[in-house]
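It would be a great kindness if you could assist me with a short task in structural biology. I am sending you one protein, given as its amino acid sequence and as whole-number tokens for its backbone shapes. I would ask you to consider whether the tokens describe a fold that such a sequence might reasonably adopt. The full record is reproduced below for your convenience.
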Amino acid sequence: MNDMGRLSLLLIGPGTLAVFGLAFLWAWLIERRRHYLLLLAGACILFALGALTQILHLPRDPGINAIISNVLYTCAVLMAAEGLLRRSDKRFGLMLDLALLAAFSVLIWYFFYVDRNLLARIYIQNFGFGLILLVAAVRLTKLARGRAIDRALFWVLLLFALQFFPRTVFTLGFSAPDAGAFAQSLFWQMLQLSLAVLGAGLAFTILAAAVTDVIDDLRSERDLDRLTGVLNRRGFEERVDRILASSAETAALILCDLDHFKRINDTYGHSAGDEVLRSYGALLRRNMRKRDVVGRIGGEEFAILMPDTDAEGAGELVARLREALAEMTAPIPDVNVRVSASIGIAVSDGHEQRPALIARADIALYQAKNAGRDRVVLFRTERPDARQPFTPSPALRRL
């Protein structure tokens, strides 16, 4: 193969990374709040530039070339690690990044100008970079239990981090290649191959994860009721359908309807009514378990699904909600208005679909309203008259 053909092959790796760098930059220009995309763009471009300085021998002085390429490579690896960590609200921190950059730079300078040792420089960079990425992967182990794209990202990152160690040992051993023939060494060829395959694979997986993040955020914005901060009807129904379809355990559905809400709107204005809804939505969010689903399914009507929960567990939550609501006053200036809610509860046997479950909870809710409002009714299918108000067990009598 002639020199031009060999050069073309060597440029595949950095060229691919440069393309991904531009893709991350484009993604950041669209979603500027995702700052990790800018870090990943810089990582790809800097690593490509580092490879180019060595492939094209720019600058020509080998010592300066080694130091400059090391700075570019180290910055690229640190930016990649920081970008991945910041996507999950973690980070190494600027001070640690600067300390690592300084350490790598000093070591490369020492093993070139003081004790010239190509083998030491190669091991410092490859084992050091692998260790940085491995630590990042360890800190991101939670991704292995997340969405499919997060699991893929974790394992690809872990594989990319680990490959630095065996690739260096098996292609280099413990004897440095001839500096004049370094570009033809097995180590250098495998390095470029790993960049072209594993590096590009990691970049593609990160880009796919970023796109998935955007799609999920758009879906969340679509499914969120902005006034109250809970799910809207569509989001609530979709989430409940998925939970009921994937579990055969009991689930409790709670419907809450603010009493005399129209009177608040008519007397104090719709802005006052909005403040009441906003406050009640915040109250619900504060008292929910992490796995519970809460949504606003009507004007002043809210619904809560409690997976793997029986009537007793639902009653305990309702008791907390009623206590919190009793302490809440409508956020209306110069007016002390007490807000109450009527509540209906229905419990699924694990084989009931959402429409039937909501219909039973709705019956209980209207029974609570007809009984004088500010009441709690449990729809009990095991009783001959399922629409009678429920007499709670000792744990629920405070309702």
